[in-house]
Design brief:
Elements lengths: L2 H9 L2 H5 L8 E2 L2 E2 L1 E2 L10 H13 L10 H21 L7 E4 L2 H16 L5 E5 L8 H10 L2 E5 L9 H7 L4 E7 L11 H10 L3 E5 L11 H4 L3 E5 L10 E5 L1 H6 L10 E4 L4 E3 L13 H17 L1 H20 L4 E4 L8 E6 L4 H10 L2 E2 L1 E3 L4 H6 L5 E5 L6 H18 L1
Parallel strand pairs: 3-15, 5-6, 5-7, 7-8, 8-9
Antiparallel strand pairs: 1-2, 4-10, 9-10, 11-12, 13-14, 14-17, 16-17
Helix pairs in contact: 1-12, 3-11, 4-11, 5-6, 12-15
Length: about 425
């Protein structure tokens, strides 16, 4: 460990953090679990687990519908969670926070509701080559429905967006710009403030996929001035099945409901239905109440650690792992942008990523192997699949050493 790594370790008590995640005590094939698949989903601290357990034990009820005690308690917990999310990303109002099942549903909601209302034949939607499939396919479906045109900005060989190409593709025909904040496969942190500003100059609305960002970067939607920002709870130490759509209030008010059902209405008759106000207009049916409450606890937990502190620790791990991987001749790194989040994607010459992932699993190491739901950008880099190690607040230098040793062992086996 270098002096810099030692200084970071003194400021960040990773041993204390690890003690708060019960699953990290698990053994896999007789060895301690080394969980490095945080880009897929994070593990959950005990406080989140206990929050969900407590809700079902003492507060379980449907919300917004009952006058009895449990319904009032559950409603208060749910709406307090919304307020926590609003503060977390500094939205202007609780009305701008819509709970969804996750990033994917949030993108589909906007593509369907905003897209069907405001996108017409000949309009253009601009994305980048590095987008996750969930930030490609919904826009393709919208283009099929409306006759709009999907434009795609190039990505440089190091994994950074070609800003000049992005600007070249922008025009008054551009109605939506949808860009990932942090690439799940490359780790690139995009200059989204610059992207937002230049897109607004041509009148485009800007949608930011923040699924891989909010656990690692402080997000202020008012400062960014984005029109939409979305993320999933499960990548933020919260439960699966809960996500957030932030949208500017005036835009959400202009959008039609995404789904019909209970709680999104004020009045229903066979002649006419009057829709509810925000945020209820976009939350039809019984929501994931426990998930929202768990998300609020996860946010409070992360803020207690400090996102900047967490990011510093994760960047230390990324730098350490990157330098070690660069010392292995058979390793090809995929995504080498100068400004990266804690994602390390790589391939081994002559060895399929699925074989690498399976052999690492025999050593108790969990990484991701495959196309990472980003087939277009991987094809551009000349590969169909990669291995990805992604780091979180509870990972350690020792775990990185285990990863490196296991990779070297895979190379020896295939040699």
């Amino acid at each position: 460990m270098t002096d810099v790594e030692g200084d970071i370790a003194l400021k960040f008590d990773v041993a204390s953090v690890r003690s708060e995640f019960p699953i990290l005590g698990t053994t896999v094939r007789g060895v301690p679990l080394c969980y490095l698949d945080n880009g897929a989903t994070t593990q959950k601290p005990l406080c989140v687990i206990e929050t969900i357990d407590s809700y079902y034990k003492s507060s379980n009820s449907n919300i917004h519908r009952g006058v009895h005690h449990l319904s009032q308690v559950a409603t208060e917990l749910y709406e307090n969670a919304r307020a926590t999310v609003r503060r977390f990303i500094n939205a202007a109002s609780d009305k701008e926070i819509i709970f969804t099942r996750g990033t994917t549903e949030s993108i589909n909601l906007v593509a369907s509701s905003f897209g069907n209302r405001f996108i017409s034949q000949g309009d253009e939607i601009l994305i980048t080559e590095m987008e996750h499939h969930s930030n490609i396919v919904p826009w393709q479906l919208l283009c099929e429905r409306t006759g709009a045109i999907l434009k795609v900005a190039n990505v440089h060989p190091d994994g950074t967006v070609d800003i000049e190409d992005f600007k070249r593709l922008l025009s008054t025909k551009t109605k939506i710009v949808s860009v990932v904040h942090v690439s799940n496969s490359l780790g690139t942190i995009n200059p989204i403030k610059d992207i937002i500003d230049v897109a607004h100059q041509v009148g485009a609305k800007v949608f930011i996929d923040g699924a891989q960002a909010v656990a690692h970067i402080e997000v202020d939607v008012q400062e960014l001035d984005c029109d939409f920002y979305v993320f999933s709870g499960h990548k933020l130490y919260a439960p699966t099945g809960i996500g957030v759509l932030y949208g500017k209030e005036e835009i959400l008010n202009a959008m039609p409901p995404y789904q019909g059902g209970g709680d999104m209405i004020l009045s229903v008759s066979f002649d006419k239905t009057i829709y509810n106000e925000l945020p209820a207009k976009f939350e039809a049916g019984t929501p994931h109440i426990a998930g929202a409450i768990g998300l609020a606890t996860a946010i409070d937990y992360l803020l207690g650690i400090g996102i900047a502190n967490a990011a510093q620790h994760e960047h230390m791990l990324l730098d350490y792992a990157t330098n070690a991987m660069r010392g292995i001749p058979q390793v090809q790194l995929v995504g080498t942008a100068p400004n990266k989040s804690a994602v390390l994607s790589f391939t081994l010459k002559g060895i399929h990523p699925h074989d690498v992932g399976s052999l690492l699993d025999r050593d108790g190491i969990a990484i991701r192997a495959g196309h990472l739901c980003t087939q277009p950008i991987l094809r551009k880099f000349g590969v169909h699949a990669v291995n990805r190690a992604s780091f979180a607040i509870y990972n350690t230098i020792e775990e990185v050493d285990r990863l490196i040793a296991s990779v070297q062992n895979v190379i020896r086996i295939f040699a």
